[in-house]
Amino acid sequence: MNIEKIVSELNFKAVRSGGAGGQHVNKVSSKVVLFFNLNTSKGLSDLEKERLRKSISSKLNSDYILILNCDETRSQHRNKELVISRFLEILKNGLKVQKTRRPTKVPRSVVKKRMESKKKQSDKKSNRKKPLKDL
C-alpha cells in the first residue's frame, strides 16, 4: 500500500455544512466530502483491492467508491485532515488479516474432573434408593 499515491488519488468536495450556526454557516463551505475509487487506484495491489472489497463492502457504493464526510470543525482544512486520517484508518483496518482460530482440545484433567463429579453424583443418587431385600 503506497500511502502517498493513494492520498494523491483522493477527490474532495467542499459543501455547506448543515445544522445550527447562524449567518456564517450559510456562506461558508466547511464540510469536506472525500471520494476514493477503489477500482482505479494505482496505490493498491490487486490482492489488496480484493481484500478491501470484502472487508469494507458496507462502506462502498455499487461502483466501489468510498465516500466519507467530515463537518466536525468550522475549518475546511481541519475537516480535510480529519477525513484523510479517518480514511487511512479504514484502509489499514480493512487490510488487516485476522488470525485463523485453532480449536483447542479439552485438557485431560478437566475431563477427569467432570467424570469424577458425575460418578459422585451417581453414587449420591444410588445411595438414596431403598436397599435390596436379601432372601
TrEMBL record:
Residues 99-135 are annotated as: Disordered. The keyword Ribonucleoprotein does not apply. The keyword Metal-binding does not apply. Keywords: Hydrolase. InterPro entries: Pep_chain_release_fac_I, Pep_chain_release_fac_I_sf. Residues 16-32 form the Prokaryotic-type class I peptide chain release factors domain. It comes from the Bacteria. Its EC number is 3.1.1.29. Residues 99-117, 126-135 have a biased composition (Basic residues). One of its GO terms (molecular function) is peptidyl-tRNA hydrolase activity. Coiled coil: none annotated. Belongs to the prokaryotic/mitochondrial release factor family. This is Alternative ribosome rescue aminoacyl-tRNA hydrolase ArfB. It comes from Urechidicola vernalis.
